[in-house]
Design a protein that fits this description.
Blueprint (H helix, E strand, L loop, with lengths): L63 H5 L15 E2 L14 E2 L2 E2 L17 H5 L1 H8 L6 E5 L7 H8 L4 E6 L2 H13 L5 E5 L12 E7 L8 H11 E13 L12 E2 L1 H8 L4 E7 L5 E8 L3
Parallel strand pairs: 1-6, 4-5, 4-7, 5-6, 7-8, 8-9
Antiparallel strand pairs: 2-3, 8-11, 10-11
Length: about 300
């Protein structure tokens, strides 16, 4: 079953004013319903518990299974959120967002008030998120980026995969999303996450240090794709990869509106001129393409 996003509060899909002093102007929001939708039911978090149900009372014993998985949650009274890098360059001019890129209409970005939808219970069933994570080939000690991290559905798992010697950059253009992620990461005891407020033209990643940049259902929402791809390319290490996960535009059975789908041909036609080449593909996900890109030789 799928949620009709129009059933969420109307404010989720309305253009907000500046949310906080540090935030860039919000100009791109998600349209009401990217899905051919029915009802989802109660939003769930990425551990399979109802939203908020994973927050134990102070002093509450954690389940043995959680301790064994290294997922012991700290009592809320002891949680100190992770810091967020909000240091945007205020002198950098962001040009108006074009409505189209290479003939493709650019989709609007999901507003932070729709964040519960990102951790819906049905997401694993619909997208096989575990298979996708395994296919990434992330190794302990790597430096990876969750681009468009939102409230951290994938960020937390990536942090566990790279381990304490690795690092995850969690980038989003909405500080409200990053604050949710900050609190969740702190409650899970994950400290190898660096939260970064990006801009629509710059994810603010270190040059030449990122082993993998993961964009899950995000690239088609880049308001300035050329600028973002250029910055991502600069951030990759020598063997670094840009990984795109996008709903299959070739498949009419995937119940997503065309605006939020991409074909392989579309993806390649946009990324190859930006200096990327397909390194490998993974075609076993239920609804999505999983494409790995390397920086093409200059």
């Amino acid at each position: 079953m799928y949620v009709c996003l129009a059933t969420l509060p109307a404010s989720a899909w309305q253009t907000p004013g500046p949310a906080v002093e540090e935030a860039p102007a919000a100009t791109d929001l998600m349209e009401e319903d990217p899905f051919d939708a029915a009802d989802l039911g109660e939003p769930m978090d990425d551990e399979g518990d109802a939203s908020g149900a994973d927050e134990p009372d102070e002093g509450e014993e954690q389940p043995e299974g959680d301790r064994a998985k290294g997922r012991v949650r700290r009592p809320l009274s002891r949680v100190r959120p992770l810091p967020i890098d909000m240091k945007l360059n205020r002198n950098l001019r962001i040009p108006p967002a074009p409505p189209f890129h290479m003939g493709r209409e650019i989709a609007q970005t999901m507003h932070y008030t729709g964040a519960p939808w990102l951790v819906r219970e049905s997401r694993q069933r619909e997208e096989d998120c575990r298979m996708m994570l395994e296919a990434l080939g992330v190794e302990p000690g790597q430096t990876v980026c969750d681009m468009g991290a939102g409230n951290g559905f994938y960020t937390l798992e990536l942090a566990r995969m790279v381990g304490p010697e690795g690092l995850v950059y969690a980038v989003d253009i909405q500080p409200e999303m990053l604050r949710m992620l900050s609190r969740r990461a702190a409650q899970e005891g994950l400290e190898n996450i660096r939260l970064v407020l990006g801009s629509p033209i710059d994810p603010r990643l270190p040059v030449g240090e990122i082993d993998l940049v993961l964009c899950v259902d995000v690239y088609h929402e880049f308001s300035h794709p050329e600028a973002m791809l250029a910055r991502i390319r600069e951030s990759l290490s020598d063997d670094g990869k840009l990984v795109l996960v996008e709903f299959r535009g070739e498949d009419p059975a995937v119940p997503i509106k065309p605006l939020h789908k991409m074909t392989k041909a579309q993806v390649r036609s946009e990324l190859e001129p930006a200096g990327f080449r397909v390194a490998s593909e993974f075609d076993r996900l239920p609804w999505q393409h999983l494409l790995f890109f390397s920086a093409a030789p200059e």
